[in-house]
Design brief:
Structural class: alpha/beta
CATH architecture: 3-Layer(aba) Sandwich
Oligomer: single chain
Strand order of the largest sheet: 2-1-3-4-5
Number of helices: 7
Shape: globular
Distance between the termini: 16 Å
Number of strands: 5
Radius of gyration: 16 Å
Number of domains: 1
CATH superfamily: Flavodoxin domain
Strand content: 15-25%
CATH topology: Rossmann fold
Largest sheet: 5 strands, parallel
Helix content: 40-55%
Order of helices and strands: EHEHHEHEHEHH
């Protein structure tokens, strides 16, 4: 059984993107084909890193645990809000923390906003950072406009049929990339 890590990127008070992370965790669990965990950057509350993990002399246990979660994941879903056309510093901090752990890792991006565009402006900047560290960004995206109208606080969609249909295409692309990556390793 393959494993998926979901990074919930926002550390803001009353964050809304976490709703989408909760949705994907539940959706993946319901399929009974993969194990899944949420890596909630709000729970970690990492300091700003001054070095990549491999150059740190005495990394904290939670930093090592985060890196191990990324390393062992067969695929990653990043759920990020869009802040002024970019992604949160908390996400940039952990992207830059690791290097080898991201290499050829299938990563699917879900973007979130309170507005009508669903975080579509953040996709290119995040993809570029991930490409630079040789991650494999999945071509399917999952933009969520007006997130507070689309999902409740527990991650339940207001329109389950339409949301599940969009999510299935998004997850299918991630699963295909995970399977292809596994075949390339063997």
């Amino acid at each position: 059984m393959s494993h998926i890590a979901i990074i919930s990127s926002s550390v803001r008070l009353e964050r809304n993107s976490h709703r989408v992370a909760l949705y994907f965790k539940q959706r993946i669990k319901e399929e009974h084909q993969h194990t899944v965990e949420i890596l909630d950057l709000n729970e970690y509350q990492f300091p700003v890193f001054h070095e990549r993990l491999r150059l740190q002399k005495d990394p904290a246990a939670d930093v090592l645990a985060f890196a191990e979660s990324i390393r062992k994941a067969d695929g990653v879903i990043i759920v990020t809000p869009e802040y002024n056309g970019g992604y949160p510093a908390s996400l940039k901090n952990v992207v830059d923390l690791l290097y080898d752990e991201w290499r050829r890792k299938p990563i699917a991006i879900a973007t979130v906003s309170d507005g009508a565009f669903g975080g579509s402006q953040v996709i290119t900047s995040l993809q570029f950072s991930l490409w630079k560290i040789r991650a494999w960004t999945v071509p399917a995206m999952f933009p969520v406009p007006k997130v507070r109208e689309a999902f409740d606080e527990e991650g339940y969609p207001k329109d389950p049929e339409a949301t599940n249909k969009r999510a299935q295409g998004f997850l299918s692309e991630l699963y295909w990339c995970m399977e292809a990556a596994a075949k390339m390793k063997s």
